[in-house]
Amino acid sequence: MKKIIFCLLITLSLLHSQDHSSMTGSAFIGSTTIDGKNYQQIGVMADIPIGKLGIGLDVKISIDSNGDLREEDWDDFEDYLNILRYVRWATKNDPFYLKVGALTGVRFGQGIVIDNYSNTIRYPDYKMIGLEGQVSFDKFRSEFFINNIKESFEDKSSVVLGTRLSYNLIGGLYLGGSIVSDLNQYNGLLDSDGDSYPDKIDRYPHNKKLVTEIDKYEKAGVSEETINELVSLGLLDGTRRETLFSKNDKRSEVTVFSGDISYQFFNNKFVSLVTYGEFAKIVDNGWGFTAPGVNANFGPINLYAEYRQSSDEFLFSYFDDTYELERSGCSLDENGDLYVETKAESLSNVPKMKGYFLGADFELFGIVDFYAGYQDLRNSDMNKRSIDAKLSLSKNLIPKISKAWAYYVQNNVENFKDIKTPSTVYGIVLGYNIGDGVSLDFNWRTTFDDINGNGKIDSRDEEIRSYGVSASMTF
Questions:
Q1: Are 111 and 47 a contacting pair, CB within 8 Å?
Q2: Domains in the chain and their CATH numbers?
Q3: Backbone phi, then psi, for 116, in 5-degree steps?
Q4: Is the pLDDT of residue 468 over 80?
Q5: CB of 401 within 8 A of CB of 395?
Q6: What pTM, to 2 d.p., does this model score?
């Protein structure tokens, strides 16, 4: 408790010492759901610019119904590092840029390999400390990212990382190359107690010493003979931990690389036009390309259009905004047993396809901010469609509404009739202005997880709804 109070005092002292005209943030109190359990939360979020240095703070104290602190938030040194939402130097428009912490909108080149990737999609249940940066010099530009630097120090690193190099050949002509790797897709399986057995397989996902029912009986001192007899009578599940999948025993790496070319016809504050093409290859799997592609900008309006074609075993934007939910999952085999399947392994079911991508984003008079992207790929037998849409409204548009935005993402589905898929994320955030900078905020988010591995979202346990209600004060 003393350490937590110390962290709050440090946070408050940082806030007090800064120029409030340049600092933004909020303090709040409300409720949230973590791992299916309800908590009351008290916290402070702030963005503090100090010259080119930027610091994002995120201090939250979660209290359960018994008045006890959520110990998992404060039992390791890295939990105290999590107070820092990010630390950055400069911005992406500067010659040198570096950011540590929350990553959103990571994209290389024309997005055929990685597009709109985020390491925050499981927040607050699971928090990653990422790293991204870029360096520009002369006609060269280099970019890189790591999804979670905490994992890079493990004996066998399991991070997602990538780098890109581009070169301005002459005039408006640019060449580039990108490579992104997931060093262990199995790391996408959540393991709450850190015993190497994923939560979907672990009978006791929050107890590091127990995995199966047999473990529980053995810990209680029940003899092996009695355990075997109970199993034979069908009174005890006979699964032993030695037969289950362990993240320590297997690794699955995937790498995607690409080359691209673009030409900028003109660029000014009123209009710009760029045409481009990009080819990508998933190592040991398929290939895909986009050409021609066009990006046109007319003041506040951006328009995108491109033709896409791919071989078998290829997905455009393999590392997308829902990748951390799809790195690996569990499915049922023909005998009804659970097995682990990575996103790369699922490529065996993806045929060669062709189609298009369309996108648009605009900001109108500071009132509406909108983005939508749509992909439609097909062959004679099936479709692969994706949609990504976001809409936010100005706080001055509707009386008493201090904030309002909604989002919907669904990737690589045959149609949009069934929204219940593991690649679907949608939500709404609304804020009601109480007065004097105080807002009552409502946050709804829904994701889906095929827990039983039958290929369908058919139970309430597989529909993960997160609700948050808080009172916040902006400063």
A1: no
A2: 1-88 (no CATH), 90-189+253-474 (2.40.160), 213-243 (no CATH)
A3: 60, 30
A4: no
A5: yes
A6: 0.81
